[in-house]
């Protein structure tokens, strides 16, 4: 397919990009990050923006920084850079684990961390990770920067708390400290396909039992969802090879979700998968 | 001159000559062609499955920037003709008019209704939005049984039954009468979308008198004849070129609306035009494959010896009959008896019109469907009488010593050794060990169950003896042509009528020529795909290229050699009978005197000293019309782990032992086998074209229509047994479709085997995790 005509600008600084965005107020402009979601929408003519602002050449929007209490991942860092970052691997391995499962190598070399978050596809792998880790998004707005907790960032299907004119700069990923284990369990039909259901799990181990757990679900609603009901039951669950107590604890993993229906799964199947996969994710994270 | 003979080329795992340019894309793909003054076509396609067109207004589109012309179906009604169907399978078949662009009525979502011709493809696409069309909806017709029911909405005036074709041998009623065991099953061959790497593309141009069409087609020769017949442009003023083509799997065995319209538009405008489809446009409008409902019945003795087989088939034609649409189920009609002996067989097929994209050839074309039904049903028979699926096959298959064997399916299989292929497969697979593990997992009630699937397939390929095609009312023959030319410097040009689109003919034909003429592999060039340089051919499909086209190459080489022998004898002053041909040279027996074929070629070119009356050329052509089909066979074994908690099926091991007779290039064979198995697994587990209740195709992108990649597939263990075909001088059989034909039932048999403890005896294809999970939920564990 062929996209409709659009203007194209490529600023080299965030300030310049913000200026262009402010000037375009009222026009339908879109920020172009890695383009792995936006370009297909343009080509299928599902989106007709008047202009694209390509922020792919803004150096200050790339890279990973190791801060005292968090890891900062700049928005335009590619998935591949995230996966290969030693800081990410050591300080927030869940991000690396999930990002390594995003689509295929070609997509991971172009697609970006921030683009994936700002696109807010509930079938995307990273929004659930942001939720599970309580990331904080850093945003450039008209009067400086502001911070948005992940729990408030994903508003609806393909919709975030970003206001028109705002640019996502990056995210702070809190360092959880020792004792935590992580896993991202993705269920999909082919290697490149979207998750039918995905589960991001962070589990704190204490003396053979789980002391704290965080679970977020991919593609179980219009936004990524925390499985709070299951999380509440995790403390005290023994880490063993058997499935008994853990299975009981996570049986409520799909509570409060509103999963979609499509060719790959109807809602009841997805709810069932959410439970099975949560159990697997928590076990993997706990061992 | 050395006396050491070069290594035989046939049988060598040569890397493919053509791959450098194909893999890097530094070659002439149709979409790479740029011509001065070229215009670009974009099609407006019907958003309705079935509707009357009540108003068409193209006036606004004509004023859009860059637009040179806009045509609706009505605008071209007088000259666009009807797309051809070359296979009227019965005398009373209903073949509806098939205008390349719809006139008056649309009958499937995606049918072309108008087109824009503009100075670039962006402007052409933009201007489509300005075309106004009003539709008056008619009911969609999607289900074949409903389509045939009384009072159904007719897709065409003649009703929804296109034809009913029947075939039978023996007394099937007697076979079923009082049969101790009768198995009746219904299987659904889901609709598939062929997904060649290269989308379809066409470029048409004219100098005002003659016309050239470049197309990403499998069939430049057939296309030329058909375009001439459809458009009225005389055949000798029409050149068709298939440049390098990136795959087809049958989808480019077609005369498409877009090809006809590109030619007509270049004729109208006098300027070159190009059309290249997008993947989504392709999913909608590349002809689809499969889509059959199969009712199969087996009659057997108490110990499972087959008496007869009955098949009642509904085949979805889609909205129109395209090039060989009605013939596809017939290609399977003779294969429902598989590798088995029986007294009687009865086959009935009804072709049904629906408001969906027409179906047509897709890798295997009729034979995967047939093989699936019989191989699934044989497992049911085994289950019914309580024996191992391999044992039921042993009790029924044709034994090695019984070949040649006239089957109840009406064919004579020339050769085969099912015992040898099966024994080899079992050895590679570790059958008993896997059965033990399966039993252990069942005992433990493990959440992951193991299933083992068997497929002992055969197929008919190498299309085809012309007389047989004639008896089936096909519109053309099945011969193939080759010309072999000796160049003055001793190099060789082969002109082949086959039209490779990924098969590696340049390499394989070079190997045949190198052995036949004793020239180096590197000294052979192969020309193909252009009706100007390769005027005679029947093109590439149905695993025919080697077994028909390759034999033509070999026969042409023999003629060249005989010509050269005359010249060599003259130069060596001996009788032609005194010469032996070895190592690329004619040698006088008993003396050291010799002339290489290159020396003979140069002497013939110079023509100073030739036998009296000898025409100064060595070149020769040969046209080979096979006497019989070739019958590859083999045994495929698949072990699958089914995760009963998620419904996911994961292939743990896959063994394929194929018998394709002698092998020209093992590397090419391996590629065909791997790709074929992958495509068959894809039908079993992944692919399905889905229309909603309004007739909209839901699987228009690769996010919805899932094609497995290497990452999703297991390692394949492949091997071969060699039982040479007796029907051709190389002893070869076709291999292009074998893997696809064999693998689908092996995979589904394995899944059903895994789920057998749950009381499950069938899962509809594709066996998606959700379907398997739901089957388990509804099972009777």
UniProtKB/TrEMBL annotation, chain A:
One Pfam family named in its UniProt record: FAD_binding_5
Species the sequence originates in: Acrocarpospora phusangensis
Superkingdom classification of source: Bacteria
This protein's name: Carbon-monoxide dehydrogenase medium subunit
UniProt keyword list: FAD, Flavoprotein, Oxidoreductase
Entries under PROSITE patterns matching the protein: FAD_PCMH
Domain FAD-binding PCMH-type: 1-178
N-terminal signal peptide: none
GO MF annotation list: FAD binding; oxidoreductase activity
TrEMBL record, chain B:
Listed InterPro entries: Ald_Oxase/Xan_DH_a/b, Ald_Oxase/Xan_DH_a/b_sf, Ald_Oxase/xanthine_DH-like, AldOxase/xan_DH_MoCoBD1, AldOxase/xan_DH_MoCoBD2, AldOxase/xan_DH_Mopterin-bd_sf
Keywords: Molybdenum, Oxidoreductase
UniProt xrefs under SUPFAM superfamilies: CO dehydrogenase molybdoprotein N-domain-like, Molybdenum cofactor-binding domain
Any one Gene Ontology molecular-function term assigned to this protein's record: iron ion binding
Domain called Aldehyde oxidase/xanthine dehydrogenase a/b hammerhead: residue spans: 24-139
Gene3D superfamilies xrefs: Aldehyde oxidase/xanthine dehydrogenase, a/b hammerhead, Aldehyde oxidase/xanthine dehydrogenase, molybdopterin binding domain
SMART domains: Ald_Xan_dh_C (SM01008)
PANTHER family, per database record: ALDEHYDE OXIDASE 1-RELATED, XANTHINE DEHYDROGENASE
Protein name: Carbon-monoxide dehydrogenase large subunit
Organism expressing this protein natively: Acrocarpospora phusangensis
